[in-house]
Please model this.
Amino acid sequence: MRKYVVLLALFVVSATLGAAPASAYQGAPYFEPNKPYAQNFPDPSVVWDASTGRYYAFATTTGGVNVPAMWSTDLVTWTAAPTNGSTNANGQHHDALPQPDTQGIAVNRGGSFPYDLWAPGVAKVGSTWVMFYALRVDGAGRRCLWYATSSTPMGPYTNATYFYCSGDPMGSIDPQPFVDTNGNAYLVWKDEGLIGSYGQRSWAQRITVGTPGSNAVSFLSGSSASLLFESDDSWEAYVAESPSIVRYNGELLFFYSGNSWDSDNYAMGLAHCIALEGPGPLCHRDAANPVLAHKGVDRKSTGAPTAFIAGDGSLRVAYHWWKYSFAPNYPPYPACLSEPYNGCNENQRRMSVERVQFQFGRTLFNSDPGPVGAASATDFTPRDPVRVLDTRLRPPDPKRADRSEVRSIDLSGAVTADATAAVLNVTAVDAVGTGWLTVYPCGDAPYASNVNFVAQQNVPNLVAVRLNPSRKVCVYAHESTHIIVDVAGSFGPAGASRFVPLDPVRAVDTRLGIGRPNTAKVAAGTSIEIPLAGQYGIPANATAAVVNITAADADSVGYLTAYPCTYFPAVVSNVNYVANRAVPNLATVRLSGAGSICIYSERNAHVIVDVFGAYAPSGAQFVPLSPSRIIDTRAGAPIGAGQVRQFAVTGAGGVPSNATAVVLNVAADRASGPGYLSVYPCGGAPPVVSNLNFAPGQALANLVQVRLSAGTICIAAESTTHVFADVAGYFV
Model:
């Protein structure tokens, strides 16, 4: 791993902030023992020890310590290693490796970190804890591998011994020991490659530890190094470093980093290995690489992965990252003196540990837990719409969600304190390619979708989603796109409104003069008011309405906002439209004191409003479900033009027989031409309403809240199209 660490000077702070510890060292905030730590921790190696019930983490040299070490019981809060009685060259008593080279082989360059120790890797081999690491051996920066041993995971690791070096001009680095499920132990490492001949290559070879007392580590007699992987000129830019092997669900997985460590292009890759012994290369790239480049609003240049199996049996990956607003490099010593103290500390590589899930043919990284147990039936609390996420506005520059990224969204400030589910309007904006968003209550991502989009398109959809215990939801982006999330209300025990499902009815169609006295478009920058309480079956004491809103024949690109006729519409949107095309979206809108909703249009556009239900003091309670696919005609025949097809809903996806209405995300796909779908309770002719307006060549989705008829729904299609639907919850 080519990481030439430029040391930072700790800024001299004022008395009001408190002085840095007297024994602090350049390079990071002081690595103080017995204190929670969340600062510089590059090249992390994390292991689980069942005997102590703790995770132990080790990093490249920082804070005056050759190998900083810390422990955790939850992979969230980390406590620095306690004083162990051994002193390193800097006078620190809590160094996991106080003497990296007792044979005098490495080049001692003096200073706080004389050996430039990099990338330690730790594992328990038999009854011995073994740490491998790399040291500089010449003035040109060539590195080779050492090991040291300990009887306890935290160390100190002693008897430092030179182990191996390849013939490559820059040597070997990034050693990670791996113990397979059958007890076979391997060392995995990277050779630096030979420019013009071959790239950086990763290898594995069996190792063994001597009898207790000697603890000598050696390659297993008769074994040989097996080529696992070689970098190429794709996104890796001939860099494939920090190799880490783990066996998960019987498969050998190879995580690594590609590209330059100090660039925005540094990212994490995955390969799948057929074995660790034999002729190679034995590991082959995942089709979706890189699997992690950026994460959330603050992390970029992710890399240096260590994969391990956690105490609960889940797959975890520890990695480091740079803060998004900073250049991925350590500022030089003089510059740090002129910056705020926190500024110097911020430009460090932090460690994160994520849970890994495989879904949609992708590798998903997230550690926010999902909800526990079955959801309870709850009532609704509508609210004025509020925006909680807009990645286009992220300072200092916009940042799309990455391809395959899982973004966690904290809704605690926008929903009630007891909320267990929320109603959100989620919009994909200016996507890089064709894909979808899946919104779910964190934990494992379901095989479902909410928003289907194509490149450079703005596509909204309403989402009813369960929350996790922290009132968070997660959004998975199959392709890179901006994401906007607006909150319309929440469900919880203290809610006062229940759902009243209605037979669908059209309330407004400005094209035909329905619901207004003329056929003019809604003028740009104006709103129309639509009285609803006491009409169309909506109770007079209703608090919110569930309406499908369609923009049609717009003059240009714009949006509609539905709101409770307050003084001016909030900075949210419900329908994003383009010129001369019908674009729908379901909306849950709080009613004004007069029982109305208002719809604002950014541009001249016709507006169509269909009523599907309301929330009132008496009605049905909502039970959220983990989204699951219950309808998919793509395995058989599509719905033909002008046809109606009936689908059983109860008994599928967790919907019980006593459900009175259902929440479905319905999508049209592979349509033969433009048209629309009507979703309604079976029994009678299709109503003159639409739920989804589609076009050929694209999957388009819309949320539907529909009353059940004997446990079924009916779907009518204007043009021939396939249909698939994911259930998100039901009402009882």
Observations:
- DSSP finds two helices and 45 strands in the chain.
- The longest helix spans residues 341-346.
